[in-house]
TrEMBL record:
Annotated signal peptide: none
Domain of life: Bacteria
Residue ranges of every copy of the Protein FecR C-terminal domain listed in the record: 12-70
Pfam family for this entry, one: FecR_C
Gene3D superfamilies on file: 3.55.50.30
The name this protein goes by in its record: Fec operon regulator FecR
Gene Ontology MF: a single term: sigma factor antagonist activity
Organism per entry: Leclercia adecarboxylata
Length: 82
């Protein structure tokens, strides 16, 4: 289940969700494009993250899963396999 309490607490929680779904949800709280490579979209993620710094969330994802986060521009981020 994905829980978003952004309006009241600014928190995003996931329990065993595919990375593609996590990125799609996160993209609603960030300007620009977040692109998740289909090769890693099925990786599973659980966690609770503060929405005040979406870059920090992406860094945690890169440290937790076998993915790399590539900033093409300030507003275009690719998530792909290592």
């Amino acid at each position: 289940m994905t829980r978003v309490q952004a309006g009241t607490k600014g928190i995003l929680s996931f329990s065993d969700k595919p990375l593609g779904e996590v990125i799609a949800t996160l993209s609603r709280y960030r300007n620009g494009v977040l692109r998740c490579d289909p090769a890693v979209a099925g990786l599973r993620l659980s966690g609770t993250f503060p929405l005040k710094n979406t870059d920090a969330i992406l860094n945690v994802i890169a440290q937790t899963l076998p993915v790399k986060i590539q900033s093409i521009t300030r507003y275009w981020i690719n998530i792909s396999p290592l």
